[in-house]
User: Fold these one by one.
Assistant:
Number 1:
Amino acid sequence: MLQLPRSMDSLYDFPFSDLEDSLRSEGIKAVHAQEIYRSLYKKGGKLAPGAQRWIAARKPPEMTIVKDLASSDGYTRKFLLRFADGKEIETVLMGYRGRYTACISSQVGCAMGCVFCATGKMGFTRHLTAGEMVAQIQFLNNHLATEGKEPLRNVVMMGMGEPLHNFKELMKGLAVISDPRGIGIAPSRISISTVGHIPGIQKLAEAGKGYELSVSLHGASNQERSALIPINKRWPIEDLLDACRAYSEKTERKVLIAWTLIEGANDSDDHATRLAELLKGRQVHVNLIPLNPTEGFDGQPPSEERVLEFQRIIKATAGIPVTVRQRRGIDVGAGCGQLAG
Ligand code: SAH
Ligand code: SF4
């Protein structure tokens, strides 16, 4: 019996093996999956009638551009995109010397409530589907192609939302994005940033796909971290660092530790020393992010000298690599934590 497609699945909701299953269930040969992927994600090739039929029965997620803002330095572009249900998300394109990175949203809003984050202030509205994550990539790659530029090289799941809170759809979306038969962005060039969602980190380790994991730490004691990131009460630092260790052992990759520097809150020599003690001997790389201004949080970023001194202390005490994140797109509200539609 022929099975009708589930109306909720868009064209972009199918990892390759799901596509093969879907074709079979509709009486179409699974070998056509390859040409469907080529047609959707590489823009070319001939399609057999069965493949044409499968494609014609579905649509990409509907998405309209509400705003398109370019930063004054020309390196960042922020798009406000609206889905068919009226919900809006932001997607950021960052480009430097012909290398483009997409900063993708995984949810409308976020349930984690970090006090310094504009998305957190919005609260949680809904998860994005896998297809809606893939659609952001397709949109940016089309945009780059029309400007005669190279396609995306990297993807960071650092837009709106907590990606590991939306694990199943995230995994499906990234399977499509990383599949060499389709979009083909290698897992090592895809970074998943998490507030420290421990069950999600464990599942990600089990999945063994080799995505880069970035953990937003921001506090070196549970008391300090909970004041900034309320969910720390559920997933405290010790357990979080254990989960990071398991992830780096499984994937044989360093875990990135993100530290948003807030003047007077977590930027002192003492904070740097305690962070270094916590991380000493671990397979980690620290990335410092000077706070970006957001409404409803009156914290400030530290001075540049403070940031450099903080960096120096960690390097000297723990002997681990420490980088400072480039601040780009701040003037159009496209920096970390500024995304709020
Ligand atoms: N929910 C995920 C990914 C999205 S936030 C997470 O929290 O990791 C991406 C990064 O921006 C996180 O490291 C987050 O802590 C940081 N961030 C949030 N608000 C910020 C702000 N106002 N200034 C600088 N970084 C911020
Ligand atoms: Fe959510 Fe991340 Fe913002 Fe925290 S920092 S509220 S987890 S998007």
Note: The chain has two domains: 16-56, 63-332.
Number 2:
Amino acid sequence: MGEIIKGKPVADAITESVIREVEEIKSRGISPKLAIVRVGADPSDLAYERGAIKRMEKCGIDKEVIALPVDISQDEFIKELKKVNDDENVHGILVFRPMPEHLDEDIIKYVISPEKDVDCFSPVNVAKVTEGDETGFPPATPTAVMEIMKFYGVDLKGKHAVVIGRSLVVGKPVSMLLLKEHATVTICHSRTQDLPGMCRTADVLVAAVGKAKLVDDTYVKEGAVVLDVGINMDEDNNMCGDVDFDKCIEKASMITPVPAGVGSVTTSVLAKHVVKACRILNDI
Ligand code: NAD
């Protein structure tokens, strides 16, 4: 029976260290600030926004929500984003994605200031994740996965990590972050042949698929560490991950639950990134 590795202790530890850093920065007369740019009022955006605001408050980080109408034109949106880019009091910017279809993310991603882009929207930050350049900002969720492993003492050096999912938000960046920690990384996706067989070779298995309970005990090697990024609804309308927790905990040495796992660490990563951006922008 594996150990359940929850997100809250990790989020608490990150928050504590961010609080201390924010106090130190404020003693210099600078107040770290996050701007959240939201188009429309998608319920999942609003839920994440509430969590992010609460976390910033706990950390002593200022925040501002720029809520824009769902039918805002591309030009108007870019004008608003540039205003936030140019606002010297703002150090971190979070733009909710996916954006409404009439807004072209492939153009907008070049507008957000890379120095303030705390959730890896800008291609500059995407490149930095690939380069292993630590001056950038990897997206919050993959970073949360890595923070959990660091907190619980998972040694990645030379281990085989298998990631299920190749999205730009989770699968690809988490693979790069694992590689940086000297894991040997295999990326699986919807066309992978013999997915359970591939996964059974993993010392560390990261599931970022979006398919409720896809990963059962036939995917897990005895003693593997299992990290579940998925957020899905099961047949009873309860939140569940991509991993069948009850089956996999029997084989895993460590396993994250859903809810209360990876998802509970993301806003503390965001806070950490705002502080980092603030330090870089102010050269402190
Ligand atoms: P996505 O839909 O962009 O990507 C899913 C990936 O899974 C794709 O690369 C696809 O190839 C792969 N895939 C799909 N079906 C598969 C199958 N049957 N076998 C193997 N691979 C398959 O999703 P995403 O944005 O990467 O998110 C993945 C999951 O993580 C979702 O459940 C999402 O809700 C969740 N998520 C959680 C957080 C968090 O904070 N915890 C943040 C972002 C996403």
Note: Residues 140-262 form a domain with the Rossmann fold fold (CATH 3.40.50.720).
